[in-house]
Design brief:
With about 150 residues, this protein is an alpha/beta fold. Helix content is about 35%, strand content about 15%. It is globular and about 35 Å long.
């Protein structure tokens, strides 16, 4: 079985200020650029690896990113796995997953590279855009672990 998966690392779209803080607006603009590339290249499966990222996003910023992601015409038809680390950042990723899911998008949070790849390759989205049979984050930590 052949699958086309594009991996995007946090350094591809996260930008910081001179003092080391997250430049949210620049990062958001760069993420939109990545989304355009997904559409123009016809990429169906995307793994966004933010395990090395250090930013601390507010709940509002996570919500805005999730809403932008879900409503992006450039990302329609693509399936995105968001790979992060266990703990608060994984919980933030689950929140963003729910924001995207509630707006019909295809994003799932993971803390395990293997589980993320398995979801991208083997899980069927279905016509309604559901991430898996139980919906996103149907049981806490169901995509975590090693």
């Amino acid at each position: 079985m052949s699958s086309d998966i594009t991996i995007i690392r946090c350094t591809d779209f996260l930008r910081t200020t001179a003092s080391g803080g997250l430049d949210y607006d620049a990062s958001k603009a760069l993420l939109a650029e990545v989304a355009r590339a997904v559409r123009t290249k016809g990429i169906a499966n995307v793994l966004v690896d933010v395990r090395q990222a250090q930013p601390s996003l507010s709940t509002m910023q996570l919500y805005e990113l999730g809403a932008c992601f879900a409503t992006s015409d450039d990302l329609r038809g693509s399936k995105t796995a968001l790979l992060t680390v266990e703990g608060t950042r994984y919980e933030d990723a689950q929140f963003m997953e729910n924001v995207v899911f509630n707006r019909g998008g295809h994003l799932a949070a993971f803390s395990s590279f293997e589980k993320a790849m398995e979801w991208l390759v083997f899980e069927d989205n279905g016509a309604a855009g559901v991430c898996d049979a139980g919906g996103p984050s149907s049981s806490p930590g169901h995509r975590g672990g090693s």
